[in-house]
Amino acid sequence: MKKEINFTLNGNPVKIEVMPNEKLLDVLRDRLGVKSPKHGCGRGECGACSVLLNGKSIRSCITLAIEVDGQEITTLEGLEKNGMTELQKSFLQHNSFQCGFCAPGMTITATELLNKNPHPDEEEVREAIAGNLCRCTGYQNIIDAILDVSKKE
Amino acid sequence: MERELKYVGKRAVRIDGLEKITGAAKYTDDLDFGPSMLYVAVLESPYAHAIIKNIDTTEAEKMPGVRAVLSGKDFPEKFGLYLKDNSIFPADRVRYIGQQVAAVVAETPAQAEAAVKKIKVDYEPLPVLQNPLDAIKPDAPLIHPDLGKYEVVPWLYPQPGTNIAHVRKIRKGDVDKAFKEAEYVLEDWYHVPHVVHAPIETHISVALYSYDGRLTLWNSTQSPHTQRNIIAHSLKIPHKNVRVIASYVGGGFGGKAGISMEVIAAVAAMKVPGHPVKLRWTRKQEFQNSSQRQELYAHIKMGVNKEGKIIALKHELFWDVGASAEYGSNVVNATGFSATGPYYIPNVYIDSFAIYTNRPPCGAYRGFGYSEFHFGLESHIDRMAKIIGMDPVEFRRKNAIQRGQPVAYGVEMNPTGILECIDKVAEKIEWGKENKSPDPTKVRAKGFAAVWKAPAMPPNESSAAFLKFSEDGSINLLVSGMELGQGFLTAMAKIAAEELSLPLEKIRVELPDTDRNPYEWQTVASHVTWSCGNAVRRAAIDARNQILDTVSRAYHIDKANLYLEDGKVKCYTDPEFELPFEKFVIDGIEMPDGTYRGGPIMGHGMFMPEFTSAKVNPETGLGGHPNVHYTTGAGAVEIEIDKETGRIRVLKMAEAFDAGKAINPDLVEGQIVGGFVQGLGTALWEEVKFDENGRILNPNFTDYKIPTALDVPRDMNPIIVEVAQPDGPFGARGIAEHTMIPVMPAVANAVENALGIRIKDVPITPEKILNALREKGQENGN
Amino acid sequence: MNDFDYAKPVTLSEAISTYKKYGDKARLLLGGTDLVVMLDDGVIQPDIVIDLKGIDELKKLEFDGEFLHIGSRVTFNELIDSEVVKEKFPVLWEASKTVASTGVRNRATLVGNICSAVPSADSAPALLVCNAAVVIATDSGDKEVPITEFFVGPRRTILKPGEIVKEVKIRASNKKFGGSYIKLGRYDGEDLAQVGVATVVNEDREYAIAFCAVAPKPVRAKEAEEFLKGKDLTDEVLEEAAKLAVKAISPISDIRASKEYRLYVSGVLVKRSLKTSLARMNGNGPKYGERLV
Ligand SMILES: Cc1cc2nc3c(=O)[nH]c(=O)nc-3n(C[C@H](O)[C@H](O)[C@H](O)COP(=O)(O)OP(=O)(O)OC[C@H]3O[C@@H](n4cnc5c(N)ncnc54)[C@H](O)[C@@H]3O)c2cc1C
Ligand code: FES
Ligand code: FES
Fold first, then answer.
1. Does C181 map to a domain?
2. What distance in Å separates residue C46's CA from the closest CA in chain A?
3. pLDDT band at B165, cuts 50/70/90?
4. Average pLDDT over every residue of B291-310
5. Which residue of C has its CA nearest to A109?
6. Structural domain A86-152, CATH architecture
7. CA B21 to CA A101: how far, in whole Å?
8. Has residue B75 got a pLDDT over 90?
9. B766 touches chain C (CB under 8 A)
10. Cα of A57 to ligand 2 centre, how many Å?
């Protein structure tokens, strides 16, 4: 049975009818056209689908869309509303990504980390992004980019 | 005259960087096709080997939302890249668990899934073969009884009446004699299990068939033109009517080379003209129904003389290629030619067998078989060095192949920086310097490996490039190599920039569309920088000649006195002369009489390595020129082992590769680090596990562990060596696959150096370490 | 995923009555990190999912001077961020840090972890050595069950349809103590435990030892604890304790490790954990949260 939900998506109100068994990831991508969260595993194992729920990173592939009724969701599209963030600029300068498929999830997770802990050390960065799988880069350029931002502010 | 390079070899922000960092980059699943889209679900075989007695789709056809149901009855065609032994849907028998037997096209994914469950299939189970050493036995049941009837390229030799899809032999010198003369002989077996590519983006294909017979596919692929060719050929559609549009690829690693599930999307679309249809693999399907890496059982016998020279090598490779060898047979072929590793060995005997089993089909995987055979070979090298009492790095240096020495099939080795790679890695890892762990339960040690790899390609592989100027002097460069993350687009732009002396911002190079972009064989074999790079270079030179020609004709200046700089034509003899490209590259140059000279400038170039030939004597492997060149390199690790739990951590790595010329040095370093980490996964954790029926036990990231940010060395040292490849663009050759090859043996060698135990079977798990320690303890009578 | 209805009650009594009405056709939802995966796999096909995240009283994370109350909505990251948990319940804090990774821990709850009752539940050994109690709300009022009685077998607890875990309660120790949780996974990244061991040592030479992932349910090693009581941790005592401790477990071989490896390494890790706990009590051990394998 469809239910109407209301939530904030990247700062804008959204009203949409969903089935209780629809996943947040699918609703964002297929019904709301927000494509930055990616489908990598669908089981919470890879982090490619990460979005912020009230500022905290979650895996939208194991979240029911109906659960976010009344909540605030931020995706990569929302982070860069006022232009690229320092973190994004740093990723760019470090050529942090290769295929780029993990980039949106990685950026969400790293953004949460820097919001919570603006000056993490290398191990804290590794801990924070450990749930975001990247098959291409070996992580080094991603970590260097995050550390660079943490040193700047 | 040696020109100073402005773009090639300089650091730069990759040209696909912005799109990827902002989330704007479109991967295939990100494209919108509107509400008429239909969805495909496939029925998978529950048996690893069975006869299909009957398929009944009537109930499925009646399910809500169903538009079409497809099975082997509709599509009897065989397909494949090198050996056409694969079917879209098998009509007669299934050969692995998860093989697609039928498919449903429906309005929603859920409807398609529901309908698939209603398809009834009668199977008659057959004996299941899971081990290539069993499958090669004379009395083994046949997995492909029709092997003799399949279409095959002339340089593969299927053995009808057996499970051997191909055998590559090398017979050089006289190994038997050499073993008798050798001072030291060592013989042993090594094993490398199946692993998967595990790109974070799974396979996906969207296909649209129009009523006028046009088939368009949007694929996540490494091989747009090859897919077009295979589809056109097997489905008997004119090539002009098949169009493959490639989006960004979320990781390939060989898994998206050639063709696999895309044919299902194609045939599904043909059933529902006018509707785009989408097929996306789940993570589980990605494990069981895209290709895997071959499993290898390798038997090595090596003979060394008093001086420490390797004089004989017998290397037998028994590859499990799974249920289809359409692509994997070429892995077997390529490694058969190269299983000496980067050493000069006068007497060589190699047998490389492609053996069918009832496991998922295997194919290209970063390294193309070289990782697997180097594990045994480089383990063996270390052991041999110990036996003869020589430092293993010194032993490698002493035997490393040099320019001009013959490789196993007789052709001369290309220029190579292997010694420099070995030396630089040894220096960086501080070879020979002991480093004690502060924790008494832990031991530290180092391990080393040297490697090589050649691109494995048919002799007539080719690349083409086309570039056209616009009014403002900018260019669109059209190529069909794929940006997989390796930096292909950036490299091609730099090559064009260098030849045309045109700033990078003035060059646009994008992902291919086979209707628009010229031919490229495939983005595999680490060959596109070299092959497509050569094509781009020729296209740029072609355009440059047109430019110089036009200017020379219009201004009556000798062509030899003209040159290009920063988007302008200049003259050596007249420093005042300066003509920006935008003044003439479309509109031409106005003459005093009001007429014009020139016209639109567009360059084209193509490259085919015309010196290669796969025609060799099948019994000796000699007489041809199957490979274009080898890239060499070396790698080393420093590890720490917890003696109580067996857990291994890699603390430090150094890897050096001879890139000839690094077009994008920072991206080359990125390849080295990324490839090392992928190799580390296979050294320590990754293995596809099967139950006794052939079912995969770990088709997910919960139990198939790929490295995370916490599992990689904190100290990683990528090193670039540059000994130019004479026929490479600016001297470049490929390095991307190579970077994962040294890791398995380097770690195994480090384990032996730490604990005196030899693990001959990857992944090197804590459990194997503890078992080996226990056995060693028993041997020592403790 | 099958079609199901969704309810988000705002009071516990409302939740209980809905749960009662649907019985075993209903499933409770907290972070969903187990539940949604099970729904997706189709291994459960409920008629209704009852989301408990609308119930305010379940958000409680409070130390009342004697007990720590962990409401069922409290996530592992909230436990990690809590000063009082870190200070007074450091073993639970250490265990919480080993669960999955931050994106999962932002949703995954401690109560969801024990209610899933997988043998590898990382929070279980810590709760066992702390003698935690589970407070269960039923339509006839709350009841309190010691954690030792809560687990029944793999994926099975004593809970019956209509019963909802409200909170987990842990008494703070008033003695000087040290503890540790060691999780052995296949690697340092996100993984499920091959073996998990928690131990606590206090100034009166009382010991507690518990395991996960090496028996059908998380277990205490009582015999070893009895043996250790009052003893100093000499090498011989440790050896004997480890021997007794592994008698409490009955590991199986699965995709993550063999039975033999689990047995052997459990002994190794018990010793390591006990030594670490002692050193921490004495103020010279590794910091809580530092990697011990
Ligand atoms: C990628 C990934 C990694 C993971 N890694 C780990 C790990 O390292 N260690 C580990 O221990 N676990 C791990 N898990 C499992 C899971 O995250 C934990 O078990 C988590 O604590 C479950 O909590 P939850 O809030 O998500 O529970 P839910 O999924 O919401 O619920 C779990 C179960 O408890 C039932 N339930 C919920 N609330 C109640 C209640 N109040 N009363 C009674 N029953 C209730 C539900 O019906 C369900 O059966 C992992 C999961 C994922 C997806
Ligand atoms: S897609 Fe959600 S975690 Fe992988
Ligand atoms: S860049 Fe490809 S997965 Fe991270």
1. yes
2. 11
3. very high
4. 97
5. C103
6. Orthogonal Bundle (1.10)
7. 10
8. no
9. yes
10. 12
Give the residue extent of every domain in chain A. Answer: 3-79, 86-152
Ranges of residues in chain C with a pLDDT under 70 are: none
Q: At B477, which helix (H) or strand (E)?
A: strand B475-478
Q: Do A131 and C104 touch (CB under 8 A)?
A: yes
Residue A92's pLDDT is: 98
Angle formed at CA B206 by CA B204 and CA B210, multiple of 5 degrees = 160
May I ask the CATH architecture of the domain A3-79? Answer: Roll (3.10)
B644 touches chain C (CB under 8 A): yes
CB atoms within 10 A of CB B238: 9
Nearest to B768 by CA among B679, B653, B683: B683
Q: How far apart are CA B636 and CA B656, in angstroms?
A: 9
C-alpha of residue B515 to centroid of ligand 3, in Å: 28
pTM for this entry: 0.98
Interface touch C40/A43, C-beta < 8 Å: yes
Residue finishing a domain among C171, C189, C222: C171
Q: What pLDDT was estimated at residue B778?
A: 83
Are B17-24+462-607 and B31-126+203-280 in the same CATH fold? Answer: no
Average pLDDT over residues A30-53: 98
What's the structural domain count of chain C? 3
Q: Is C80 on the interface with B (CB under 8 A)?
A: no
- C144 belongs to a structural domain: yes
**Interface with chain B: mutation pick from C182, C188, C266, highest number of B CBs within 10 Å:** C188
Question: For B501-518, what is the mean pLDDT?
Answer: 97
- Is A105 a pocket residue for ligand 2 (Cβ < 6 Å)? no
Closest residue (by CA) to atom 3 of ligand 3?
A134
Query: Which of A51, A60, A63, A64 should be substituted to probe chain C, the one whose Cβ sees the most C Cβ atoms within 10 Å?
Result: A64
Do C118 and C184 lie in one domain? The reply is no
pLDDT at B166: 98
The verdict on a CB contact (< 8 Å) between A59 and C101 is: no
Is A26 in the C-facing interface, judged by CB distances under 8 Å?
Answer: no
The pairing of strands B507-509 and B475-478 is: parallel
For chain B, the structural domain boundaries read: 17-24+462-607, 31-126+203-280, 295-457+614-779
Model pLDDT for residues C122-151, shown as the tens digit of each residue? 999 999 999 999 999 999 999 999 999 999
CA distance C119 to B601: 70
Rounded to the nearest angstrom, the distance between the alpha carbon of B555 and the centre of ligand 1 is: 78
The angle that helices B370-388 and B328-338 make with each other, rounded to 10 degrees, is: 30
Give pLDDT, residue B77. Answer: 83
Q: What is the pLDDT of residue B1?
A: 42
Considering the domain delimited by B17-24+462-607, tell me its CATH architecture.
2-Layer Sandwich (3.30)
Query: What is the average pLDDT value for chain B, to the nearest integer?
Result: 97
pLDDT of residue B3: 72
* Structure tokens, B733: 């050759």
CB spacing of A109 vs C102 below 8 angstroms: yes
Please give the class, per CATH, of domain B295-457+614-779: alpha beta
Residue B180 near residue B257, CB atoms below 8 Å: no
Res. B464 pLDDT band, cuts 50 70 90: very high
Q: Which two tokens stand for residue B286?
A: 């990605």
Q: For residues B556-580, give the mean pLDDT.
A: 97
ipTM (interface pTM): 0.98
Is B250 close to A130, i.e. CB distance below 8 A? no
Domain membership of residue C273 as a residue range: 177-281
Q: How confident is the model at residue B782 (pLDDT cuts 50, 70, 90)?
A: low
**Residue at C247 is within a domain:** yes
- For B203-219, give the DSSP string: PEEEEEE-TTS-EEEEE
Topology, domain B31-126+203-280 = Aldehyde Oxidoreductase; domain 3 (3.90.1170)
DSSP bridge pairs for C182 = C197
Q: How far is the CA of C165 from the centre of ligand 1 (A)?
A: 13
